[in-house]
Amino acid sequence: MKNLTEGNIYKTFILFAIPIVLTGLLSTAYNIIDSMIAGSYLGANALASIGCSASYVTLLTSLFWGYAGGASLHGAVLFGAKDYVSLKESVINNVYLYLLLAIVTSALTLIFKGPIFSFLKVDPSVIKDASVYFSIIIIFNFIIALNPFFAFTCHSLGMSSYPLKMSIISTVINIGGNILSVTVLHAGIIGIAISSILAAFVVDVFYILKLKKCFSKLGVKDYKVKLNLKTIKDTVGYSVPVTIQQLIMYISSFVVSPFINIVGASATAAYDVSLKIYNISAGIYQNSAKTLTNFTAQCIGAQKYDKIQKGLKVGFLQGIALLTPVLVLSVIFAKSICQMFFPKGYTGDALKFSIIFVKYVMPFLYVNMINNLFHSFFRGVKAMKFLLFFTALGSLSRIIATVILSPKYGIYGVYAGWVVSWIIEAVFAFVAYLSNGWKTY
């Protein structure tokens, strides 16, 4: 555990950020490898069975990520204030609420699985395997959903290296379980689903044991936690806006998807490749910015308000430093990177479109990095109205720009819509920051 408000701020930020960034990169890499294993050993239909419901699963995941992110902010404030009794109450009460939320959403998802599959237009040739895989993941989602909650809780306590260790363990179990289940046990799509659940369960156990040690060090091991509605209410004040923000972001991606598919299969394939490359680069500054969120929340809890704006400056410099090498390499080796996602010798439009994205759209990630930094900052100071407004503004401007530009410019119009939304949001966020309206503490 570490109080992020003490010591050299530059050293504190980089040491806290690096494990989080590596955790994010590891998670992204695993998702790519997971798809490769399914496709290589089980074929294209198995890959489609997993991927056809991915957009819904991602949307559902954003709900839990948002709640966990908000709850961890409340925890960081309590940790900064050294109110360890309330901190333990907050964590345990929110575990119960989190599990209840997971069970309810899983039940509703299974009840409406038919309409969900219909909306997603799942191909009849894969619907049987897709239904089995989807059902297993949803039924045991309460196990999977706890992983990000515990990881964010560790972040709020100033621990970033432990979630990295858990991510490594999860990846090893997932990949090893997938290979074992499909090559030795011949469990097919069911084996891949079970591997994910098993990895999540093992990691949950490790997290629980770690948090018990933390509470012991903080001197509240023997404190008996009871249901505390005030604690839950305080957490909801942080969690609901962050959850809504995440849902707004992913719903906008849902709305934009048809405009991509209408352009043609090459555009769809290119966008999928572009999104994977984007996620790797964006994950660097998105995870780096979590340092600023937890630092800011701890500052407020410790009433060290004078350090807050310096944290924003350091977060900006850190984001630039971490993102630049990746962007430079991506632009220089754009063709080689994009070719990794296509069969050897492929020279079609999908490759061309994806190379264009990496060369000409990726440099604008500096703008999106600024947006993400302000998101983290406004989240940390609990200026949730700003957070929701700018997320909605960015999402709406992306939809409008895509609707206007894509009919004439195709996939390039989709790319341009993304860039336009980043620029508009960055301008308004910067002006709002200068207005000092975010000073709610």
Low-confidence stretches: none
Helix count? Answer: 18
Computed Rg: 22 Å
Overall form: globular
SSE pattern, N- to C-terminal? HHHHHHHHHHHHHHHHHH
Q: What percentage of the residues does DSSP assign to strands (E)? A: under 5%
Mean residue pLDDT: 83
> Percent helix among the residues?
over 70%
Strand segment tally:
0
CA-to-CA gap between the ends? 25 Å
Structural class: mainly alpha
Largest sheet: none
Quick structural gist:
This protein has 441 residues and is mainly alpha-helical.
Structure in words:
- The chain is globular, with a radius of gyration of 22 Å.
- It has helices at residues 9-42, 44-51, 54-80, 84-111, 113-120, 127-139, 141-156, 161-183, 188-217, 229-263, 265-288, 290-301, 308-332, 334-339, 349-361, 365-380, 384-409, 411-435.
- It contains 18 helices and no strands.
- With 441 residues, it is mostly helical.
- The chain is 84% helix and 0% strand.
Question: What brief labels describe this structure?
Answer:
globular; 441 residues; 18 helices
Helix and strand topology:
Elements: H1 9-42, H2 44-51, H3 54-80, H4 84-111, H5 113-120, H6 127-139, H7 141-156, H8 161-183, H9 188-217, H10 229-263, H11 265-288, H12 290-301, H13 308-332, H14 334-339, H15 349-361, H16 365-380, H17 384-409, H18 411-435
